[in-house]
Every structure is written in C-alpha cells, then in structure tokens.
C-alpha cells in the first residue's frame, strides 16, 4: 500500500510497534510464569493456596490490572492517531478499546452476567445449559452482546474507510477475534471442566490458554495501536 502526495510516495506498513510489543509480552510472560510457578507450588504442597495477586484467573490480580493499563495505552495511542489523521476509524476503535477496558476494570460481564443468567434460567426453568451454570451462561450472553457491538462498529468503520485504513484495520480485527476465542470459548471450556479453586495440570493449561491468551492478544492490540500512531508521526515528519 502507498500514500501519494504531490511529490512523494510513502509505503504504509501495517505492523505492531516492535519495541512496545516485546516489552509488553515480556511482562506478560513473566506474569504467566509466576502463575505457573504458583500452581506448581500449590500442587506440590509448598503453598497452601495460590497467591491472589499472581493468579491470572482473578480479576484483581496484577495481570488483570496490567491488561487495563494496556487498554488505556492503546486508547490513548488511537486518540492521538485520530488527531493526526482525522480518520474516524481510529476514534471508533478507541471507543471500542475503552469499552473493553472498562469491562476488564469493573468486571462488567461478570456483574451483568449474574443478572442475565438468572433471568434466562428463570425463564427457561432450567438449572444448567449444556453443562454450564447460570453465571457462565449470563457472562456469555453479555460477552456476545459486547462482541456484536464492537465488531459491528469496526465493520462499519471498515466499510466507510479508504483502502489504506481498511488494510490497517484487518490486523486489529484478527487480534480481536483471537482475543474472543480466548475470552469466550476457552473460558466456557474452563468453566465446564474445572471447579473454581481447583489446581492441577489441566487447570493450569486452560488458565494459560484463556487468561494468558487474553494477555498476549491485548498486548498485540496495544502494540498495533502504537504502530499506527508512529506511522502517522513518521509520515508527518517526512512531509
């Protein structure tokens, strides 16, 4: 892809900011390693319980706070990209990231999922649905609604954008799909197979796939946001 000006042609690369991506993922790996070490320590009887702050499955853990921090960074980068480019796609994506960050910081889908699950189960008069309890079903309903809102907004932004912006949105779309797989599908599998508070190999693997996967893909989305911003900054410098 290229951007044409009166006397220059600039190549547009769609890629995450390498240094930021490496730094974020390095921290993610460190937090995942601490989680695995804690799980092993509990299984071996060295610890009586998994330290809450190191448990990537828990909302108030360090990993979850770091995820919120990354959402905030990504939103700020996209806000700056919008200021420099005046392309509304980045404002739309920024709003989506703010929504996802608020959900993480306030345990939104868990809180609203309790009410949604209870309402659905009372209406259907059932005690479980495909082996999933009302809390999990409620969370899935809320996440589905958020997914429709986020992917719908991005789809509209993609349709209304020029080819350069469309190409830049594709890696965001792919990373968000991967994030959804970790946060929805692996979450449902985890909830079905593992009793809360259980430690062991299967729980550790599913915890890494679900919560560790979320951490990695949020880092990728953050680095992509800065990649877009720095492309505009570099283009502005060249012009």
Automatic annotation (TrEMBL):
Membrane-spanning segments: 21-48, 136-159, 171-195, 215-233
Keyword terms of this UniProt record: Membrane, Transmembrane, Transmembrane helix
Domain of life: Bacteria
Name recorded for this polypeptide: Uncharacterized protein
Species: Parasulfitobacter algicola
């Amino acid at each position: 892809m290229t951007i044409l000006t009166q006397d220059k042609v600039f190549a547009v690369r769609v890629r995450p900011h390498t240094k930021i991506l490496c730094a974020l993922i390095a921290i993610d790996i460190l937090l995942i390693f601490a989680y695995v070490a804690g799980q092993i320590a509990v299984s071996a009887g060295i610890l009586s319980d998994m330290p809450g702050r190191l448990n990537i499955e828990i909302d108030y853990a360090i990993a979850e706070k770091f995820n919120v921090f990354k959402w905030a960074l990504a939103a700020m980068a996209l806000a700056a990209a919008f200021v420099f480019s005046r392309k509304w796609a980045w404002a739309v994506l920024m709003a989506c990231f703010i929504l996802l960050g608020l959900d993480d910081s306030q345990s939104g889908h868990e809180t609203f999922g309790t009410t949604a699950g209870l309402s659905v189960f009372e209406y259907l008069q059932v005690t479980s649905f495909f082996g999933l309890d009302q809390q999990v079903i409620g969370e899935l309903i809320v996440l589905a609604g958020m997914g429709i809102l986020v992917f719908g907004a991005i789809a509209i932004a993609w349709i209304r954008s020029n080819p350069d912006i469309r190409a830049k949105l594709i890696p965001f779309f792919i990373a968000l799909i991967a994030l959804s797989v970790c946060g929805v599908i692996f979450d449902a599998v985890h909830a079905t197979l593992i009793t809360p508070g259980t430690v062991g190999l299967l729980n550790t693997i599913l915890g890494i796939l679900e919560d560790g996967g979320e951490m990695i893909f949020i880092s990728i989305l953050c680095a992509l946001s800065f990649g877009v911003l720095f492309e505009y900054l570099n283009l502005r410098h060249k012009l």
